[in-house]
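Sequence only, no structure available. Ideas?
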Amino acid sequence: MSESFPKPILESLWSPWRVEYFQRPLDAPRDFLLQAANAENDAEQFVVTRRKSTFLMLNRYPYTVGHMMAVPYRKLSGMEDLADTEALELWKLCLHAQDLLRTVVKAQGFNVGVNLGTAAGAGCAEHLHFHIVPRWDGDSNFMPVISGTRILPDALERVYNALLEAQAEKTP
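Reply:
I predicted one. Tokens follow.
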């Protein structure tokens, strides 16, 4: 008896951190970015860097290992609503994230972008944020194409701690 390829379903894939997403209470705050902006414990929210009007955090549900987000503290949905200082800080955080990711995950390239509005794919459309997604030569494989699944070969906590260490080494 031969099995069909590809299988119509993925039988199992271990990603224990995703359980937090599915088990969160239905009445949990939806704006995780505002929650991170106001957090007293940066490690709980994976906040890596804080500036005067913006911050940089590791994405809890990443596209790839090391996926980061640059976010203004102010909750606004359009780029036109940014003050000049916020826009500059956001861009500098995107550059800072790339520097850290080259060191920590040996990124060879990046996708940097913003999804404006739900029609553009924004998961949190009411709170503007930039995505900094590390990429590597040959990082595309059959998993996303065949099964709609991404493989993340490293734990969030380990990457977060490594980002903090790299940042401390780069800061005079």
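The chain is about 35% helix and 15% strand.
Hope that gets you unstuck.
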